[in-house]
Amino acid sequence: MSTFSIQYLEAGPHIADLPPQVAAARLRAAFERLPLAMVLIGWQLPDATLQACAEVCEQAGATLYRWQPLLTGDGTFTPHPEWQVIGLNGQPVAGFQQMPEFTFVCPNRPAAANAALDNLDRALTNAPYRGVFLDRIRWPSPAADPGAQFGCFCPDCQRAAAEQDLDLDAARQLLLELLDTPDGPAQIARLLLDAACSAGDALTPLGALMQFRVWSITRFVGRAIQVARAHGLAVGLDGFSPALTPMVGQDLGALDAGADWTKVMTYGHTLAPAGVPFELAALADWLAARGGLSGDDALRLIAQTTGLPLPDTLRALRGEGLSPEALGDEVRHARASGVRMLLAGIELVDIEGITALGDAQIRADVAAFRDHGADGLALSWDLWAIPLGRLDVVRDAWGA
């Protein structure tokens, strides 16, 4: 039996003025088109809007999940500047376009971790949720500039790393030295995409660093899952697409072991954070600028490292995105990593300069997800902006 989830009402300025009955009607219309099992509803909702949507879910027999950013701000949890991730250059890692919702705190900083978990606990108390969907459970992506954005190297990470027998400062110095060697940027790019590439040579400490980053995220998410379980809630997780998980410290199988299901952000046509073309093209641009390669040669190196059948040129990657074949490979890789109940994330919202979607492409991608073993789909990002006809396309393409 297939499982479909949908994300709804992400925080934004429109939420406060949205009549509860209008929000409920939109959700009801979605249920008329697709057998949704889970609704992942956003944060910062007025109580009346949340209650109206909860009633629609109850009538439809669907589970209402709190959609909760964990390591970034959510309007209630405001990360302190001293909690930010510290990059390879010793400076705080800024959020994408300086946006607070993409500014990450370090899970190894006790004050930051405790504040984020306390905020989660408050959000789940006396609320109509039956589950929680944990988002932003990662390190910030370093793809655009590993020399500045790869982290974390804060004092708390140094202490935690020492307990894991890792000299974090020595690993940092090795990375800084690599940046100034002819082949160093290519070695760093390979490391970010495949931590195992460092095994058995002078880069072995960097493999240990990558493992420490995974350990840090897995440990923190485990604590968040315990908070959710204490409220008697089901747990879903938001994971990067497998080709990108080493960059952000996610081991999908290890994370999934404590959860009920995992969504992988197999966004094959998105030029924004977490979109596979966006992240890979950003890394290729950096590698070309720092490593003396052409952009297309850098992309070929990335394709060889990830094993993905990528387009031949950066222009094609940005313009066409990933093929259904590549997206199917990502589903297989997620399953091979140990994810048990796997939902493939698919973007359905047209945003100028970020997505350019079409029904034929959506049908092909949905079929690839289904045929390569996904248990269902997570429809993204937000039902409020998804053309309702696209739910019909998804339903027919999947055969629901």
**How much is the average pLDDT?**
96
Q: What is the percent of helical residues?
A: 40-55%
Give a short account of the largest sheet: 8 strands, parallel, barrel
Q: How many independent structural domains?
A: 1
| Distance linking N and C termini | 9 Å
Report Rg.
20 Å
Reading off the top of the CATH hierarchy, the class is best stated as Alpha Beta
Number of helices: 16
Outline: globular
The CATH topology name reads TIM Barrel
* Secondary-structure element series: EHEHEHEHHHHHEHHEHHHHEHEH
Beta-strand fraction estimate: 5-15%
Structural class: alpha/beta
Q: What CATH architecture do you see? A: Alpha-Beta Barrel
| Order of strands in the sheet with most strands | 1-2-3-4-5-6-7-8
Number of strands: 8
The CATH homologous superfamily name equals Glycosidases
Low-confidence stretches: none
Can you put this structure into words, describing what you see?
It is a single chain. By secondary structure, the chain is of the alpha/beta class. It has a single domain, classed as Alpha-Beta Barrel (TIM Barrel), CATH 3.20.20.80. The chain has helices spanning 20-33, 47-60, 110-124, 146-149, 155-163, 168-179, 184-193, 204-230, 245-248, 252-256, 276-291, 295-306, 314-320, 324-336, 359-371, 388-398, and strands at residues 3-8, 38-41, 63-69, 131-135, 234-240, 261-265, 342-347, 376-380. It has an eight-stranded parallel barrel, surrounded by five helices. The mean pLDDT is 96.
